[in-house]
Amino acid sequence: MNITQKRIRIQDDRGFTLLELMVVVMVVAILASFAIPLFLRYRSQAMQSEARTLLDGAYKSEIAYYAEFSEFSIDPDVLNFNPITDPKFYRTWYVNTYSDGDGSEHFIVTCSTNIDVDVFRDRWIITDNDKKPWNNWDDIEDMEDPYPYGP
Hints:
The chain is α+β, with helices and mostly antiparallel strands and 151 residues long.
């Protein structure tokens, strides 16, 4: 092996410079700064889909119970609403019934949880008038104005 070949081999084993490594670290940090918030938002939206699915099942159970007994029930056992799997995130449930001025009965089913571990809870509601669950306190979207309904 002559001197020229030896010098080339030494230069090949040198590896990366500190500047090259710092550029790679900076690029990865910039990509992570975009990817992590998007991942957290998609994760929260997936959690909220559990609430919409469960409230849709509760709505169908209340309507079926009303069709049979001409009244709404606040007892989940009487409604025979049993999700296939236990709720993973939305475990706080409220079922209420009320009568308005003209004597007609209504129901409200509410579920809530804290999906991003802060002081605000994400709350979903479905009623007999609304055939689709709606979110009156969105833990994801209301962060710019945490008190949208007044102090």
